[in-house]
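re the bet — no i am not wrong, look at it urself. input seq straight from the record:
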Amino acid sequence: MSFLQKLFGQNSNEEQTGGNDMMKIGIVLGSTREGRVSPQVGAWVKELADKRGDAEYEIIDIADFKLPLLGEAGGDASGAAAWSEIIAKQDGFVFIVQEYNHSITGALKNALDYLRDEWNNKAAGIVSYGSVGGARATEHLRGILSELLVAHVRVHPALSLFTDFENGTDFKPAAVQADSVNQMLDQVIPWTTALKTVRK
């Protein structure tokens, strides 16, 4: 039994409540750029997560929503209401994070800034990638999530563009990375369960 399972008095069987009582975890694709590989990473995380049977996992692609630069005059923000709705119904998140210039993408920062209450008192894990595994982007994201009252867990799968991608484009993760994703979710699920009681 893990530390968090002891802390919250849960085991893996108790977490599998099934039906409408299952936690809803959104897997947020943090890049909208042409040639992005985040859909490959997100699909891989969802495939691993679905095997667990401990929550309902859904891929949420920022690119599917019209979210111009927040406050930009004349921008078509027609996707803002749908963005608010889909984030509000999630109990927790896994962010797929790319490192650009030592930080997260502008699209992800903008999407985070569009909302506030919808993020509050929820848990999140981070899966990142980059030349150094996206570590610097992850640390930037942690500060933003803290301000939004999102409890981000410690375990952090960090994917290398050199060893987990072929030619920097075809995602072929090392076997150890799957274990890291599951360890991350082992923390996200109990924190998500606990924080749901705060939101009631």
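see?? Helices lie at 3-8, 12-15, 38-50, 80-88, 106-113, 135-147, 175-199. told u. also The chain is about 40% helix and 20% strand. so pay up
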